[in-house]
Write a structure and sequence with these properties.
The protein is 44% helix and 16% strand. The protein has 179 residues and is α/β, with parallel strands linked by helices. It has a single domain, classed as 3-Layer(aba) Sandwich (Rossmann fold), CATH 3.40.50.360. Strands 2-1-3-4-5 form a 5-stranded parallel β-sheet, with helices on both faces. It is globular. Bound molecules: flavin mononucleotide (FMN). InterPro entries: Flavoprotein-like_sf, FMN_Rdtase-like_dom, NAD(P)H-dep_reductase.
């Protein structure tokens, strides 16, 4: 099972990206989690640049979404809302078909950020018929370094939460296949 993980933070030492990397490391047999590295390379969305003028990097991003059986998104809150870069990536997908039936799950690297959570639920629930607000994984990692995080997620209780979350993702994606 091929899952694409998308971080809403482009920060080198992002806690959200580090959480997604930890999920990739913890993926059970049969599940592969790949980190999407493209959203920082996307140009600013304009309907004038859609097909047939769609930039190649946008086509590559859309193809990555299409090829994934599910998405896991971890996104920080910027100014009580979605970060512009992440919203820009979603805007590029709106007129295509890649995200409509895609199972989407959330992971959060902080227990703060209620506004971005509401934004994520509204926006992702609009673009996908298979957005799952629950289960959501929340591992508070604010101000930890990627190295600290790699150790922190080995804590048995956190590891158990990660395993439960990934198991739920797996079952939800497979339920889609049966439908
Ligand atoms: C431009 C900017 C705006 C932010 N605005 C908020 C905010 O409105 N509410 C909040 O709780 N945190 C805010 N933060 C803090 C980030 O959400 C927080 O540091 C987050 O964990 C960063 O994620 P990352 O480690 O993945 O980059 C802001 C950070 C930045 C850089």
């Amino acid at each position: 099972m091929n899952i694409l993980a998308i971080s809403g933070s482009l920060r080198e030492a992002s806690t959200n990206t580090a959480l997604l990397r930890a999920l990739a490391d913890a993926a059970p047999e049969g599940m592969e989690i790949t980190l999407c590295e493209k959203i920082g390379q996307l140009p600013i969305f304009s309907p004038d640049l859609e097909d047939p003028l769609r930039p190649p990097i946008v086509a590559e991003f859309a193809a990555q979404i299409a090829a994934a059986e599910g998405l896991i998104i971890a996104c920080p809150e910027y100014v009580h809302a979605l970060p512009g870069g992440f919203k820009n990536a979603i805007d590029w997908l709106v007129s295509g078909s890649e995200i409509i039936a895609k199972p989407i799950f959330l992971a959060q690297a902080t227990s703060r950020g209620k506004d971005v959570l509401a934004d994520l639920q509204r926006v992702l629930g609009t673009v996908s018929e298979r957005f799952y607000p629950a289960p959501m994984l929340c591992v508070p990692l604010l101000s930890k370094t990627p190295e600290d995080i790699a150790k922190h997620v080995q804590d048995p209780q956190i590891r158990a939460e990660i395993d439960l979350f990934l198991d739920a993702v797996c079952r939800a994606v497979m339920a889609q296949e049966v439908d």
